[in-house]
Write a structure and sequence with these properties.
With about 280 residues, the chain is mostly helical. Helices cover about 70% and strands about 0% of the residues. It is built from 13 helices and no strands.
């Protein structure tokens, strides 16, 4: 059974995910401002609803970690089982968020193992969990794993086993952007673009191939090299990149999921959940 602390972690993770969904413009990703498009409005509402359906599963993952007490193979297997059940619930609620569930689930479990750990220590603990093999995982390859094998990309599993380097880079960008005076939304968009600029996003590799992936990475770097989204030049470059990716139908969903992971870790120091009785 989950505790208040487990539920607080799950709530923080869902808040991070819905906070990512609310950002605009996110290049190639659903835009909540586009009220003129019925399909976009419906899809965005469905994504928010399905994001909230992650909460029970994430709380169960936190409870499993707290009960286990160590990043063991047993914990990894239990997290996998909970994750698959949660994916089914999310599918019934409208689908989406599979990559975000993988990242957030590991990070939530890692945070539950050590309530006093800082963001980077939590990422390190998640790395230790991900290093183990889920022996009960289905043997059939997923689309992400197939794309990773085809192109030699790290994929979601490789990102976790490396200690979420793109999540840590996003955290660094958040800190720098805020210190430079950027608004919170601009800081978060800069963090997203930082991830997009180097991530081997398997969703993009599947839909656009290596050339398309490099095109997206170059576009994201262009926004940051123009000064980031807080500058006029950077905002103009962002608008152009967003229009370009939507026209091509290319969506960097992997980057969006990792931004949610960064926003979750960013929230840990101010949650206050670790000191609740």
């Amino acid at each position: 059974m989950s505790s208040r602390e487990d539920e607080a972690l799950a709530h923080a993770a869902v808040t991070a995910l819905t906070g990512q969904l609310a950002l605009a413009p996110k290049p190639g990703l659903p835009d909540p401002r586009d009220l003129g498009a019925r399909v976009t409005r419906r899809d965005h509402r469905m994504l928010r609803w399905s994001a909230k359906s992650l909460a029970p599963g994430l709380a169960a993952m936190a409870a499993a970690a707290r009960r286990t007490g160590e990043p063991t193979p047993v914990l990894r297997t239990e997290l996998g089982a909970i994750g698959r059940c949660t994916e089914h619930s999310v599918h019934l609620a409208g689908g989406g968020h599979r990559g975000a569930l993988w990242a957030l689930g590991l990070l939530v479990a890692a945070a539950a193992l050590d309530p006093r750990a800082g963001a980077r220590d939590v990422a390190g603990t998640a790395k230790r969990i991900a290093a183990h093999t889920d022996k009960r995982a289905p043997r059939r390859p997923s689309r992400g794993s197939s794309v990773s094998a085809k192109y030699g990309a790290a994929g979601a599993r490789g990102e976790a086993r490396a200690g979420f380097p793109h999540v840590r880079r996003a955290l660094d960008t958040l800190t720098r952007a805020r210190a430079s005076g950027a608004a919170e939304e601009q800081a978060r968009l800069d963090a997203l673009l930082t991830v997009m600029s180097t991530l081997q996003d398997t969703e993009l590799l599947y839909t656009a191939g290596p050339i398309g992936l490099r095109h997206v990475q170059a576009g994201a770097r262009g926004v940051m090299e123009a000064g980031g989204t807080a500058t006029d030049a950077g905002a103009e470059a962002l608008t152009a990149l967003d229009a370009d990716l939507h026209a091509r139908g290319w969506s960097p969903r992997g980057s969006a999921g990792l931004l949610a992971g960064a926003l979750f870790l960013d929230a840990l120091p101010v949650m206050g959940w670790a000191t609740t009785a």
